[in-house]
Amino acid sequence: MYGYEVFHEELMKNLIESVHNGLSSHAYIFEGDKGLMTYEAARLFAAALTCPNTSISPCGTCQTCVESKADTNPDIIYVHPQKDKKSIGADDMRLLAEDVAVKPFNSMRKVYIIEDGTLLTEAAQNTFLKTFEEPPEYAVFIILIDNSVTLLQTILSRFTLIHFPAVSEERIRRYISEKYPDEKERLPFLVKYCGGIPGTADAVVNDMEFENLREMAVEKLFSLASTDRKEAFIIQKFFDENKENVNRILEFWISFVRDTVLLQLGAQEKILNIDKKDKLRNFSARVNTNTIIMLYNRLVTAQKMLKRYVNIKGLAFWLTLKNDKYYN
User: Fold this and answer.
1) Where are the beta strands (DSSP E) in the chain?
2) Cis peptide before 58 (omega within 30 of 0)
């Protein structure tokens, strides 16, 4: 759309029409998974807001539009943490406020895109609010965020919330087929795995380790469920050899266990790992549903423990040595 890769054309059409009709707001929250290309959507909208040909913006041919596409438009500012910081703090917002006071260089508007709203500290949000007491007419703010619930209510009340929902399986199928024609064999799995998020397909296809790690994870299911102390060392070694991917391994196991429950309930059309169906059936035949649900809960807890920086070795033993009888 206008040379930008977006997946919500109708939504963007309405936003751009608000610019054409002089009805655009000065503050927006683009809520949606990053894989839904909300960043690209913000770039497109910023191009429309700064294009001098208001009635047809973004025209795509003027100098401003060319600069917008190349990310060199001086009136579109991308806000992210400084190189040595992991968050956007109050001092960053004070600097932003100083910049807001400076009129646009070439356009009628000056657009600020906060690339990840989850990185805004509470102090930063409160400092940011002062900019809205008397915002200049030319300033427009766009916050990108997965879930707006993490923002202060005072921020939410001052912004127009634009929600970007997951797209249909058919749209995902078409996207993967057109962009990755060599992925015909994995296409059914990829469509399911993406869950309506196109960017997930890009991440999986371009990750050379993904399939190998996933295959190893499914092979370790029986070790994971075993009460044999020797199996605990197998899981520990698996974690140790894949330290950077422990969270992904847990995600794989959670999806496998979920699919096992669905198989036991006769809902195989809903399983995610359809290319691993035979291996999951084999696992399902030897593990009862109640125990599988217990294992699922433990895996979810393990993810939370990992976020609290629990030792990986300890996590492996906790997962495998405190299980009751798992086999029928």
Assistant:
1) 27-31, 76-79, 110-114, 139-145, 160-163
2) yes
Q: Which two tokens stand for residue 276?
A: 């691993």
- Sign, CA dihedral 116-117-122-128, equals positive
CB 111 within 8 A of CB 142: yes
User: Which of 42, 100, 92 shows the shortest CA–CA distance to 75?
Assistant: 100
- Per-residue pLDDT at 321: 66
Residue entry with tokens 């939410």: 156
Buried/exposed code over 62-84 (b: 16+ C-beta within 10 A; e: otherwise): bebbebbbeeebebbbebeeeee
User: Which of 7, 4, 1 is closest to 199 using CA atoms?
Assistant: 7
First vs last Cα of the chain: how many Å apart?
Answer: 55
pTM passes above 0.85: yes
Predicted confidence (pLDDT) at residue 227 exceeds the cutoff of 80: no
Helices (H), 130-276: 153-156, 169-179, 187-194, 198-205, 210-219, 221-225, 229-241, 246-264
pLDDT at 119: 97
Per-residue pLDDT tens over the stretch 78-107: 999 988 899 999 999 999 999 999 999 999
| Helices 289-307/246-264 angle, 10° precision | 160
pLDDT band at residue 77 under the 50/70/90 scheme = very high
Write b or e for each residue in 271-287: b if 16 or more Cβ atoms lie within 10 A of its Cβ, otherwise e: bbbbbbeeebeebbeeb
Q: Work out the angle at residue 237's Cα, subtended by the Cα atoms of residues 236 and 239, and round it to the nearest 5 degrees.
A: 65
